[in-house]
Amino acid sequence: MVPGVFRLSPVSGETTLSFLCRIAARYGLEEQALLSCWRWRGHRPRHDGGGLRADAEVLLDAAGRRALVELSGAGEETLARALPSWGREDSSFTAVEAGVAGGWRVGGAVVGPAAFGCRLCAVRRTGAAVRVVRYAQRWERVCVRHGRWALDADVDQMLEHLDLRGVPEVVAARRRWSGVARRAVRAGVDVGEVFGLAYAVVARWWEGAYGWEREEIWPRRLHRVAGGNAGSDLEWWRVVGRDAVIFPEVVAVADALLDPGMAQRVWADSGGERPRPLPADGEFCRRLGERVGRPWLGPLVAVDHGGPLLAWMGAVIRLRRRPGGRLGPFARFDENLWWVRQEHQPSAMAAGLRSVSRERKTPGSGTNWRARVPAEQRFLIENLLGDAEEQLLQLRGAQSGTTADAAQYLLQGLGRGLELLDQALLRVMVAAVSAGVGMEEVARWARMSVDEAAEVLGSYRDGEDR
Q1: Phi, psi (rounded to 5 degrees) for 114
Q2: Taxonomically, which superkingdom (predicted)?
Q3: What letter does residue 116 receive in the DSSP assignment?
Q4: What's the chain's Rg over C-alpha atoms?
Q5: CA 245 to chain centre
Q6: Stated pTM of the model
């Protein structure tokens, strides 16, 4: 390969493929023409619809890396520092015959989440408004200089960024996050874990916000990032705009969870050394609502049983009651303050857009039917699920008395828990059918035949009428 004429440097955190594509653009070449200088293992990743993935990545062998150093004119140390995938190989390269070689991968499987870079920043750096793809965590998505939110690069959609000029509070939150991250470091806590927990908490609120009659902040913010009015594409924008819209609240919640005073409120709400159930009007949830600019929110999140916030509160209480207040080497994951269970992880944008696409193809299916369920019905369902969880959790404790008495207690507890779950399932079925979901789909969810589901719902309605 002939040494390069131009000297080009990568953007910090850039994917190697993105850097190669920018080199091709600088030389006025098609991407494929430049990529043909390497011998490739595998095929370039594509979306299910056939389009090329923007978050595709390449791993180069030693000869391939040397070729890129010569072509770019940047030193190997510079490339190793800026390109996260630099130096990563796999065993298949050993079978490649002489010549520079590379292998195709998906960026998320190599390093982590990938997002589009700001093209205006690229202009300042390179003199050309070219596309840049770089690895970036969600707290790194705000371009403070240009007021833009970088979107995920693993999604098959056209937008690269959201305009934040109408929502300056998002940019301000990015500046505040730096202070929150420093607090986490001083406390000896991983910054990513703190953000991940706060993100899971607020993303769960986002899903339930349809039922918040007093919520005004998020709808206004969402319409602004959508260009003024989301219109008939509201569900699409709710998926695409979620992370940017909730970012200020994520920062506020992360700051609150790091505050020892807030943990003390959890301890006080639990009764301290005289345990009691967490109240719906507890001081912690009330104060948390105030810190996110919603004084009315506390009682709503306090009854959100089974969510990541309640799991964190439970971990705080268990840690306080543990001798010495420290986690031992064999502590369970759910005793780690910052651990987020898999079921609490927010859905990715790609998954959300696939769900919206299915909903458009099959009206009445998908998840947005929940938006048409009255708030009081959702509240009843959530209470039933919370009661069932509490009933089943009580069975984990040690039982006293004879074996027969303990067995009878366990069976009664299991029976009561299953009865509550059955009631919740029935109410979900009624709510889904009332919101327009087809009987066949509801029956499949409930693991019933269509006739059985229709009979159950008919009996429920007859009971309601009486």
Answers
A1: -115, 145
A2: Bacteria
A3: E
A4: 26
A5: 13
A6: 0.75
